[in-house]
């Protein structure tokens, strides 16, 4: 067996896997258009998409564009909302869903170019997410069973059922 003939393709494959994504300025990342929902899961994800209200700090931006270029983010220094008060190109909400303990869990995630809390050291890149818990997305009228927004630490707030002032129809109102 010619090991040399196997070695060169193996090295080439490893080199291709090690290619890094190109980073571009945080305010140059073009968001994806929301696709038309087709499946019950997709329809539920659009119907129950939360509304994120920002009280202070950075606003959400797209993390990646159609070409695979990613946001370079911003340094976690300076004012908490410095250079990130909202993208003129639009924002992006990412979502995935799965059955978990007999409930349909839809996780929505938003990307922020930096996180600079008032009394802590800031950091480049931050993600905030919310899990909306439904009884069944295939029902004619799925019901929100709970809402779990992420917190600043690695835990979640849990609202089961969510308070009335947290909902506007099928939309969870999340303050950040």
From TrEMBL:
<dbReference type="Pfam" id="PF05630">
    <property type="entry name" value="NPP1"/>
</dbReference>
<dbReference type="GO" id="GO:0005576">
    <property type="term" value="C:extracellular region"/>
</dbReference>
<keyword id="KW-0843">Virulence</keyword>
<dbReference type="InterPro" id="IPR008701">
    <property type="entry name" value="NPP1"/>
</dbReference>
<keyword id="KW-0964">Secreted</keyword>
<keyword id="KW-0732">Signal</keyword>
<feature type="signal peptide">
    <location>
        <begin position="1"/>
        <end position="21"/>
    </location>
</feature>
<protein>
    <recommendedName>
        <fullName>Necrosis inducing-like protein NPP1 type</fullName>
    </recommendedName>
</protein>
<comment type="similarity">
    <text>Belongs to the Necrosis inducing protein (NPP1) family.</text>
</comment>
